[in-house]
Specification:
Number of domains of chain B: 1
Distance between the termini of chain B: 78 Å
Number of domains of chain A: 2
Helix content of chain A: 55-70%
Number of helices of chain B: 7
Structural class of chain B: alpha+beta
Structural class of chain A: mainly alpha
Shape of chain A: globular
CATH class of chain B: Alpha Beta
Order of helices and strands of chain B: EHEEEEHEEHEEHHEHEH
Radius of gyration of chain A: 22 Å
Oligomer: heterodimer
Number of strands of chain B: 11
Number of helices of chain A: 10
Strand order of the largest sheet of chain B: 10-1-11
Shape of chain B: elongated
Strand content of chain B: 15-25%
Largest sheet of chain B: 3 strands, mixed
Strand content of chain A: under 5%
Distance between the termini of chain A: 22 Å
Largest interface: A-B, 58 and 70 residues
Largest sheet of chain A: none
Radius of gyration of chain B: 22 Å
Chain lengths: 312, 240
């Protein structure tokens, strides 16, 4: 699949933004983080900023962005529509939760309920995003449980790395957040290993054309001299040797380095811990963008079978 | 609405494509383009139609395949277009309701005034039936010539999809698959009409008829073997 940069930016930015919002909502409700105004302003500013810019950028690849509101109508059947509806719904409790935290300094009682609702909305929105891809049977490497698992856990992990960086910047190192950071990164790593084990193309041209019952099917003549829309959109496939290299880069930058740096924050002075946490964040950003680019670039669509991919 | 019709449509309009007969002339694709660039989905945009970088919207694409049957092998021409699936994933993924399946006859269409051009329907289609119109910013697809088959301004014999009426070999047939006595239903039943990629569970309405087994392969060397009797037999003995 051809990677669209607006969609890569949208899924990574909103994933991290929702991950951060989820943690802010849940942690403050159980009083694991204080209603500190500095953390509040930075946390809500970053999470809502990432979510909002992400959502806006996702409309850039549309043929008619001015009609985007129509995408809110088909929530009964379409995961893309559900994602839009939940994204907008989540703003409600989030704004109230932020108001309680920032203006009243209160994250208990009804404001805690708002926090939990924001966290649930954030998780549900990311789940819907993942199911847009996870339900596409035409792309076998996406149509399995690893896709929602990856999107959810990577959103949580990138949100946790962000929160850890914010906390350390404010000189308020939290052991719980460090542990959560490392735990979610390890879980996301496991998720990627599982995702990469899925057979990307179990189907053959024989079943695509129905001619497999006669014998091995080879493409003899293409219908078109130049690539069609379908080939431009669905035909892109990163070279195997590049994919292997990029997988290693994403594993090192998204998991190995951030895990080492995050663990190291426990053992150093708070100044150095902040530096480590910020660097963990920078590597995570490089890693998540590489991971998301690969998510699209490695995906194989069954329509390519008609154009001569995978014989018989 | 973007949900599939809640009850089965009373009619299931679709095509039978006979791969035994198709000669790969592309006339169906060309006439489709000609009709549809002035019909329901008009225009079917072309970029540089006479240049080197030709790029345009077509609803029908004709592939050529070599099938290795372990004998002399065979070439099969294979027109590919929308199959108007009963469980059309392109309809249910649509976030706006622009992509829909008609309750009365099962034709899958796009409402171009509602389409936001997110392209998700084209991702969900296993058959590559949908092509995005970059100039109009909306998705386009085969309409099963909905603007021909019900068109009372046309003579009755002309009320067929453009691809069917133009096929010089008679490889394409249009009809109602909900009626077991229709020509298409009978043809499909007799010849073993099959679904493309049944593992996708899309339940295509269009059926493909497989190429008939070859007669020649059973006696492949008949013409090459020298006869044992007569003048040629005598000549064979003298020469060998």
């Amino acid at each position: 699949m051809t990677p669209a940069y607006s969609v890569i930016f949208f899924t990574t930015a909103s994933g991290a933004g929702y991950g951060l919002l989820f943690l802010l909502g849940l942690f403050s409700a159980i009083e694991a983080v204080p209603a500190d105004p500095a953390l509040g302003w930075m946390g809500f500013g970053l999470s809502l900023g990432l979510i909002t810019f992400g959502l806006l950028s996702s409309t850039f690849h549309l043929g008619h962005p001015e009609r985007a509101w129509r995408a809110l109508t088909q929530w009964q059947s379409s995961w893309l529509s559900r994602e839009g509806v939940l994204a907008i719904f989540t703003y409600g409790p989030t704004v109230l939760f932020a108001y309680g935290w920032l203006y009243l300094g209160d994250t208990s009682g009804v404001w805690a309920v708002m926090g939990v609702l924001s966290a649930l909305g954030a998780a549900a929105t990311v789940f819907c995003t993942s199911m847009i891809y996870g339900t596409l049977r035409t792309i076998p490497s996406w149509a399995n449980k690893w896709t929602p698992f990856n999107y959810m856990v990577l959103g949580l992990a990138t949100g946790a790395v962000l929160l850890n960086a914010l906390q350390n910047l404010l000189g308020a190192h939290s052991q719980n957040i460090t542990m959560l950071c490392v735990g979610s990164l390890v879980l996301a790593w496991v998720g990627k290993i599982g995702f990469w084990k899925v057979d990307p193309m179990p189907y053959k041209a024989g079943s695509a054309t129905g001619l497999g019952t006669i014998g091995e099917v080879t493409s003899l003549s293409s219908p078109n001299t130049n690539a069609t829309f379908v080939q431009r959109e669905m035909g892109f496939q990163v070279a195997r040797k590049h994919a292997d290299k990029l997988r290693r880069i994403s594993v090192i930058t998204l998991f190995v380095i951030p895990i080492i740096l995050t663990v190291a924050t426990v053992f150093v002075s708070s100044g150095l811990a902040a530096t480590f946490a910020i660097h963990a964040l920078i590597f995570t950003i490089i890693g998540i963008v590489t991971e998301r680019w690969l998510f699209f670039a490695e995906a194989q669509h069954v329509v390519n079978l008609y154009y001569g991919d995978h014989r018989s | 609405m973007t949900m599939l019709p809640s009850s089965l449509p009373p009619k299931k309009l679709g095509l039978v494509i006979d791969l035994d007969i198709c000669v790969g002339c592309h006339a169906c694709a060309v006439n489709c383009k000609q009709w549809n660039t002035g019909g329901h989905s008009a225009p079917l945009t072309d970029h540089e139609p006479y240049g080197n970088d030709v790029f345009g919207v077509w609803f029908n694409r004709v592939h050529g395949y070599e099938v290795d049957d372990g004998k002399s092998g065979r070439a099969v021409y294979f027109p590919r277009s929308c199959l108007h699936c009963e469980d059309a994933p392109c309809v249910t993924v649509c976030p706006t309701g622009a992509s829909y399946k008609r309750g009365e006859d099962g034709i899958v269409l796009v409402d171009h005034d509602k389409c936001i051009g997110c392209k998700l329907c084209s991702w969900s289609c296993p058959y590559g039936a949908r092509e995005f119109d970059e100039d109009e910013g909306v998705m386009k697809k085969c309409t099963l010539c909905v603007d021909r088959v019900y068109n009372e301004n046309l003579e009755e014999w002309e009320r067929l999809p453009a691809c069917v009426i133009t096929c010089p070999a008679g490889a394409r047939h249009f009809g109602d698959f909900a009626d077991p006595n229709s020509d298409v239903s009978k043809m499909s039943a007799e010849r073993g009409g099959y679904d493309l990629m049944p593992e996708m569970d899309t339940k295509p309405v269009n059926k493909y008829l497989p190429p008939r087994p070859r007669q020649l392969d059973e006696k492949p060397n008949q013409l090459l073997d020298a006869p044992e009797k007569g003048f040629l037999g005598w000549l064979d003995k003298v020469l060998s």
